[in-house]
Amino acid sequence: MNRLRASALWAAAATALAGCVTTTPPTAVHQPMTIRPETRTGSLYNNGAIYNVASARPLFEDRRARFIGDTITINITEKTQASKKSDTKAERTHSVDATIPTLVGVPFKGTQGLTVSADNSNIFAGKGENSSTNDFVSTITVTVIEVFPNGNLLVSGEKQIGLKEGEEFIRFSGVVNPNNITGANTVSSTQVADARIEYKANGFVDSAQVMGWLGRFFLSFLPF
User: Fold this and answer.
1) Residue ranges making up the domain that contains 90
2) 104 found inside a domain
3) Tens digits of per-residue pLDDT, 7-26?
4) CA distance linking residue 45 with residue 54, whole number of Å
5) Is residue 69 part of a domain?
6) 122 in a domain, yes or no?
7) How many domains does one find in the chain?
8) pLDDT tens digits for 87-101?
9) Residue 150 is assigned to a structural domain of this protein
10) Model pTM?
């Protein structure tokens, strides 16, 4: 009995550790990232040998996505480049010369006739330069999770790639105008409004690049 309990405890601990290792990274894309198609009702016809109410479309209508649960292929072609350069200079100089005159009938006669001078100089120079370049090229198929009153489609989706060292996650969400969807049911990411694109990973390689919680704790209030 004790061995069974010990085995159960070890199994629970291993499961917990495995769950910690394969934790899904947090996301900011629109939720949910997938949804089942809605049941279509109100049709005058019933399902037959070939005809199906759920997938039926008018004869002269293309196959572009326009219902909840339909899929759209997103061609991610994002490239951003930004640079900033600043140079600031400030200089201030101040000089004061004063002489104590000779006066009769006043104390501290030893200080009379002395010359006092003061100089103050303040110089500030600051220079900064920053540049950033990002390239992201990929393809992901997303699902329509909501149809807005004007016909625009809110899409969201995720692609998981399991590797030996961990897992990689590609996530995408945004608002698609049906007029931008091509005949192959694809659209470029540059034509998606409110686009949220993520590329994240987990595993021991990515964990090694993250500062531990104790280090972050001390770094939050140490002045040096």
Assistant:
1) 84-129
2) yes
3) 445 545 544 444 444 567 78
4) 11
5) no
6) yes
7) 1
8) 888 888 877 776 766
9) no
10) 0.59
